[in-house]
Amino acid sequence: MAKAYWVATYRSVTDPDKLAAYAKLSGPAINAAGGRILARGLPSQVYELGLEQRTVLIEFDSVEQARAAHDSSAYQEALALLEGGAERDIRIIEGI
């Protein structure tokens, strides 16, 4: 079974306090669901049409595990704290 990667890119953060509250709960929720945060922060370098956006890369053992982590009550509780504080995009992609 291929690993899966959850890629979150933040287009904007309008309320850093909401982001901090989200981060306090989301990390433990993701870890409890089997996720491993591999990288997070602003890019060290961007190329082509890359944007200077906060990005988070999380590894899971499968796409199903990544979906379950996102849909879990613990993660949804964290996500509710972020509402209105950031505009972002989350993608789950399967490893090769």
From TrEMBL:
Residues 3-96 form the DUF1330 domain. InterPro entries: Dimeric_a/b-barrel, DUF1330. Gene3D superfamilies: 3.30.70.100. It comes from the Bacteria. It holds the Pfam family DUF1330. SUPFAM superfamilies: Dimeric alpha+beta barrel (SSF54909). PANTHER family: BLR0684 PROTEIN (PTHR41521:SF4), PTHR41521. This is DUF1330 domain-containing protein. It comes from Neorhizobium lilium. The lineage of its organism: Bacteria, Pseudomonadati, Pseudomonadota, Alphaproteobacteria, Hyphomicrobiales.
